[in-house]
Specification:
The protein is α/β, with parallel strands linked by helices. The protein is globular, with a radius of gyration of 16 Å. The protein starts with 6 loop residues before the first strand and ends in a 31-residue tail after the last helix. α3 packs across α5 and α4 crosses α5.
Length: 197
């Protein structure tokens, strides 16, 4: 998609619900997870900012196929360009560092701060991660709080738990309890992916 083509909007059915995406000529700029009442207003505001008065069309994007493969358990990393125009430069630095956290690995907010060149700034990193406009692709679900606590997730903790389970982490108890470092057996690709909330 060329920069002159404007904004491409696309939807991706998933076990989490319908994911709503948008891409500019520079790359994927938005992937919205279903999150309740404020979802439509959040997405509309982001789309308005991204379109900036230019043309908007609906279609398909390469990310959709990659997300289907990710949820089927056959894809471990995404290969699409990103446009992080919706975030501030400091946030972009954190999100770029987060892109280096591989499938199945977990990192604390403090460790991510160190990796982003911001040692001691775990809270600022938490705010940056919370404003991630492209969750799953920029894997904010892989960031956990110190002391083996689940931490937050802008897409909802039930979705975070499901994504961590998909990547082989057993999350025991309630969302406020600790996660386990125990790895679970990889699900056969032919098995349907079902999430419990």
């Amino acid at each position: 998609m060329s920069a002159a083509a404007g904004l491409l909007r696309f939807d991706v059915p998933s076990p989490l619900g319908v994911l709503r995406g948008a891409a500019t000529g520079r790359g994927v700029a938005l992937l919205a997870l279903p999150r309740g009442r404020d979802d439509d207003a959040h997405v509309a505001s982001a789309l308005t900012r991204l379109a900036a008065g230019g043309p908007t069309r609906t279609g398909t994007h390469a990310l959709a196929e990659q997300l289907v493969a990710y949820f089927a358990g056959t894809l471990r990393s995404f290969d699409v360009p990103l446009d992080l125009a919706l975030v501030a430069p400091g946030t972009e630095r954190v999100l770029r560092a987060l892109c280096d956290v591989p499938f199945g690995e977990l990192v604390t907010y403090g460790e991510l701060a160190r990796r982003a060149g911001m040692p001691g700034a775990a809270r600022a990193v938490g705010r940056a991660v919370g404003s991630n406009p492209v969750p799953i692709v920029v894997p904010c679900h892989r960031v956990v709080a110190a002391g083996a606590r689940l931490g937050g997730f802008s897409g909802g903790l039930a979705h975070k738990r499901a994504l961590l389970a998909l990547e082989g982490h057993e999350v025991r108890g309630t969302d406020s309890e600790r996660w386990s470092t125990a790895r679970v057996a990889r699900r056969a690709a032919s098995q349907p992916l079902l999430f419990e909330s």
